[in-house]
Design brief:
Layout: E1 6-10, E2 14-19, E3 27-32, H1 41-52, E4 56-60, H2 70-75, H3 84-99, E5 104-114, H4 120-125, E6 133-137, H5 156-161, E7 167-172, H6 180-192, E8 197-202, H7 220-239, E9 250-254
Parallel strand pairs: 3-4, 3-5, 5-6, 6-7, 7-8, 8-9
Antiparallel strand pairs: 1-2, 2-4
Length: 269
């Protein structure tokens, strides 16, 4: 069991929701980042699930400092792309808040991004040395995430090679935004930088299949399996069974059709 999320402010002008597990002993924590639709129900549901599994979960509003049409954002009619440093500042404030929270074991904090927010565990994890793990669900791999722009000033390969914490990447074979070639590009960057990772490609899965608020995308069986992958990974890194800095671990698992063709992948709602 877990309590209902508590709305809070941190870092001066940032807002979010905090979910605490039933056990009051200091626990591992996860900063869970929302998708492109803002801090919507799906992200809060994930935060509560993490708390039910024994973790403190903080879901920050990455657009806390953005003043725009929130209704259009939540409906998907608007897309907000902010400078990496601006989003990272909100995440830094969330991480620092958790490090000082009495219910959190400060050496056991993970950062998890989903879809559009998947790039930010890499952005933040490339320069912070106090994360226990980075987690990315079908993000940080789209071609646009690898473009160097004014908003994204640091090349993605450079950031991946600078990660210190082990990283989990979860993908779907039928994702219309991430091809298997994109997945291999991520894997190659991590391995060339000798960074530790666990990576799994789920066969037949579309983009966003974890999101049960989108019936066209949601896949209950595989979503349950993916959650097990996440919880086991967190258990490994939080318990100290994952290798330390003196050893690099690469774990890659993929199942795809023999006639895979990315051009046939379709956007589902």
């Amino acid at each position: 069991m877990a309590r209902d999320p508590d709305r809070l402010r941190f870092g001066g002008d940032c807002e979010g929701f905090l979910c605490l597990p039933q056990n009051e002993s200091p626990a591992g924590a996860v900063v869970i980042l929302h998708e492109r639709y803002g801090l919507a129900k799906h992200t809060l549901d994930l935060a509560q699930r993490l708390a039910r599994d024994g973790h403190v979960a903080l879901a920050p509003n990455l657009f806390s400092r953005w003043k725009g049409d929130e209704a259009a954002l939540r409906s998907g009619k608007a897309r907000v792309v902010l400078p990496d440093p601006e989003v990272a500042a909100v995440i830094d404030a969330a991480l620092d808040f958790l490090k000082g929270h009495p219910r959190v074991a400060p050496e056991r904090i993970a950062l998890m991004g989903v879809c559009q927010s998947g790039r930010y565990p890499i952005v933040v994890g490339s320069r912070r040395r106090d994360l226990a793990a980075c987690v990315v669900f079908y993000g940080a791999s789209q071609p646009r995430d690898w473009q160097v722009t004014e908003l994204q000033p640091t090349p993605m390969p450079d950031m991946m090679r600078s990660l210190q914490a082990p990283a989990l990447f979860v993908y779907g074979e039928r994702d219309h935004t991430i091809s298997l070639e994109d997945v291999r590009r991520v894997r190659d960057a991590l391995e060339s930088g000798r960074r530790s990772y666990r990576m799994k490609v789920f066969p037949g899965m579309p983009h966003g299949w974890l999101n049960d608020t989108m019936p066209g995308r949601y896949r209950a069986k595989e979503a349950k399996e993916a959650w097990v992958v996440l919880i086991r990974f967190l258990a490994d890194v939080f318990s100290g069974t994952w290798p330390g800095e003196d050893q690099v671990r690469w774990e890659f698992e993929s199942a795809t059709s023999a006639d895979y063709d990315f051009s046939k992948n379709m956007r589902l709602e």
